[in-house]
Amino acid sequence: MARGAPSSAPFDVSDFSPIVAVVGCGITGRAAAKALSTRGIRLALNDVRPSVAKQVAAEVGGVNIHGIDEIRAADAVLLCTPDPHADLARNLISQEVPVVSVGDFLDDVDELLSLDSQARTMGVPLVIGAGMSPGLTGLLARSLAAQVPNLEEVHVAVHGTGGPACAVRHHRSLGRTSIAWHDGAWIERVGGSGRELCWFPDPIGAHDCYRADLADPRALQRCFPQAGRVSARVSATRRDRLTARLPMLTPPHTGGSVGAVRVEVRGADHDGARLTVVSGAAGRAGEIAGAVAAAAMIQTLAGRLSPGARLLGDDPSSAAAMLELAQDLGVVIQEFTGLARPSSW
């Protein structure tokens, strides 16, 4: 297992046939495991539901494992369980095991970021928010930022959920306090406020989006400290907003939903002219998140990520490679052109 300073050498998994432990075999974990298996990476599957882990292990040619000791034995660990991840990540890092987390709960992301010093000391990367949002949003923002010489604002909108646990998080987020970065300071707003009509890539189209308890602003502000404003919203109906502080009235769909992300970057060119660029992706939310998580894990195994807490989009070179890899694994990126032609949205 390559650890320490990032490597630029070509990566071939056959060089050492790494083993990745996937903890959590829901929709996202299953999608990530399938993507990793196509790259010749050996897999060990763990879930609180042993029958589910056994089923996924059979699908990807992996093995079913139990307990922390067997998880620690892997070359790297991908955390796909519902939040929180910080305690398990801390345990694994202490044993010099690289960790990739798809967690999207703000408090948990903040705690994971606090493990930066420990990860640096142990010489392993801790990749945080490696799903659809945050995760793909950071990669898209970094790609768009290359087109805006003087970046000033980054805004994200999210539609759809990856699975039952994700649906519950989406539901609750609308009833909790939202954060945003505004002119050099964090501000708090009531969840479910701030309606904005956002156009997502086809086939999603336009949806009203609202402030919510999301981790994207924290992640994106760290990736783009020069931005004066960073915000994130989720799509919601009137009923979603009304019932956000109540238990879900309808059980979430076990197969997840078709989702999308939309990232908008604003700023100016070298002459001061205003620039706004928009990009996004649509598809099964869990499959998108799984592909991004797999891309982050492959980059981790390749030794391309330096030790410490890492966010997707924090480094231009690794972000570009990761976005390209995510596309190879099935994520379809669309960029708004502003032109009235079939390829635009």
Describe this structure as you would to a colleague.
Helix content is 34%, strand content 26%. It is α/β, with parallel strands linked by helices and 345 residues long. The protein has two domains: 13-131 and 288-328, Rossmann fold (3-Layer(aba) Sandwich); 136-286 and 331-335, Dihydrodipicolinate Reductase, domain 2, CATH 3.30.360.10. Strands 7, 8, 9, 10, 11, 12, 13, 14 and 16 form a nine-stranded mixed sheet that branches. A seven-stranded parallel sheet has the order 3-2-1-4-5-6-15, sandwiched between helices. Helix 1 (27-37) packs across helix 11 (285-301) and helix 11 (285-301) packs across helix 12. 54% of the residues are buried.
Write the layout of secondary structure elements.
Layout: E1 19-23, H1 27-37, E2 42-46, H2 50-60, E3 63-64, H3 67-72, E4 76-79, H4 86-94, E5 99-101, H5 106-113, H6 116-122, E6 125-128, H7 136-145, E7 150-159, H8 164-173, E8 178-182, E9 185-189, E10 196-200, E11 205-211, H9 216-223, E12 229-235, H10 238-243, E13 258-268, E14 274-284, H11 285-301, E15 308-311, H12 316-328, E16 333-335
Parallel strand pairs: 1-2, 1-4, 2-3, 4-5, 5-6, 6-15, 7-12
Antiparallel strand pairs: 7-13, 8-9, 8-12, 10-11, 11-12, 13-14, 14-16
Helix pairs in contact: 1-11, 7-9, 7-12, 11-12
